[in-house]
Amino acid sequence: MGEVFVITSGKGGVGKTTTTANIGTALAMLGYRVVLVDADIGLRNLDVVMGLENRIVYDLVDVAHGRCRLRQALIRDRRFETLYLLPAAQTKDKNAINPEQMKALCEEIKKECDYLLVDCPAGIEQGFRNAVAGADRAIVVTTPEVAAVRDADRIIGLLEASEIRNPLLIINRIRPKMVRTGDMLDVDDVIEHLAIELLGIVPDDESIIVSTNKGEPAVLNPHSKAGEAYRNISRRITGEDVPLMNLENGEGFMDRVRRLLGLRTS
Amino acid sequence: MDELITFKGYRDGVTLILNDREPDFQKLLNHLKSKLSHLNFFKGAVVNIDIGQREALSPAELDSLEEILSTKNIKIKDIILNGSNGRKPSGSKNLLIPSHEKVHSDALMVRRTLRSGQTLSHSGSIVLIGDVNPGAEVTAEGNVIVWGTLGGLVHAGSAGNKKAYIIALNLNPTQLRIAQYIGYAPKEAGELPRKPEIAYLQGNRIVIEDYNKVKNMLVDFFEGT
Fold first, then answer.
1. Which strand ranges, in their side-by-side order, compose the sheet holding B137-140?
2. If you compute the radius of gyration of chain A from its CA atoms, what whole number of angstroms results?
3. How far is the C-alpha of B169 from the C-alpha of B150, rounded, in Å?
4. Which domains does chain A have, with CATH numbers?
5. B135 touches chain A (CB under 8 A)
6. What is the pLDDT of residues B91-120, one digit of tens each?
7. Collapsed DSSP state (helix, strand, coil) of residue A3
8. How far off is chain B from A106, nearest CA to CA, in Å?
9. Other Cβ atoms within 10 Å of A266 Cβ, number
10. Contacts with A261 (C-beta within 8 Å, 6 or more apart), sequence order
11. Is the pTM above the cut of 0.90?
């Protein structure tokens, strides 16, 4: 019996879909059976990020309404044969399914996989309620911005109300340089405010944009910093103890000299 | 489906939690009725009702709830609303429906963190052990004491008590209200003092002071409230 994770944030654009695609792919790389469910009905894009858009025949709404069998709607990944995607419908909206249907669907899928990741839409309305309905656990994604942290806080409150305890936190798009100069909230600020367990931090990385556009999750790229962060996060999900990544590796030669001499780097 | 009705014991007494995902209030009542019929140890208790995410109870709903509870001689102390979905205007009165016949203990003690969008209100004073995050709201007809960081909106003396005060270990609210007066933190950068502070009304202004510096002077001020 697998575990259902919902990946949520409240605010849009903080990287829920990217996170879902990367964690899912990384878990499949580790050999687990993974199903990704895109719950963003009407604004689907997990299929695009995964590069599977052109294979969609049936979708989540079709399965929920019994128009097809689950197996017919699941799309197998091009790279990993233990990775599947259940795409959202694009021509419907969030009201096309209800939380009970979503819950039943998750129950059915989790019988046959190790991890089921639900990509939650932004917002706190019907789409959110659908996405969390079948979840055992939640991963809250935020960025080091006041507005995103505020929304994450709201979401954590709503998750508690939905009886999903102990959500895990991912802080996405950290820019170590800005944190160092005091222009960006640092990891400790965010954790102190939200007071939930940290699952991982992901540096801001231009390679994410490239990989998203190509439909190749960044975890496949051994040189991507963000990809490495997501691989670490996935290992933590499986229970492995992986230390947080050092984001300061990008220091220049002079920085290193200063550090070796015991001087503070600016 | 989760339990429709849950009883939970907290330090301030028993709280009866009504499942907010059940839209049919009558169904909840029927369930409560049958549950109470074979439970006797709550007899004569005073309970809080947690109505979770649902809107405030209508007077009719409250009446029928009281009626069922009264068969076991259970009294309602307060109604707790968890997340008002941000739809209510701040400070709105119907978050809590005070009822005149009910005996209120003066203070409600709560051990939790209020997150953005969550509200807590009470007809007496509130003592909250935990943080009030930005976007959360605390409303009390009496005083508000927060053993933690107060970052949201807080209203003390909401029924007009000008002697009401607000104390927090870390007073950093988005907005402060005492009686009908509103104050907000000056938008100055820099670290806030990490020490307990008190906010109270001086004339028609809300002032904030280091609690330890003024606590002795304040005795006179609050005496006779």
1. B119-122, B137-140, B153-156, B175-178, B181-183
2. 19
3. 8
4. 3-260 (3.40.50.300)
5. yes
6. 333 334 444 434 445 789 999 999 999 999
7. strand
8. 15
9. 8
10. none
11. no
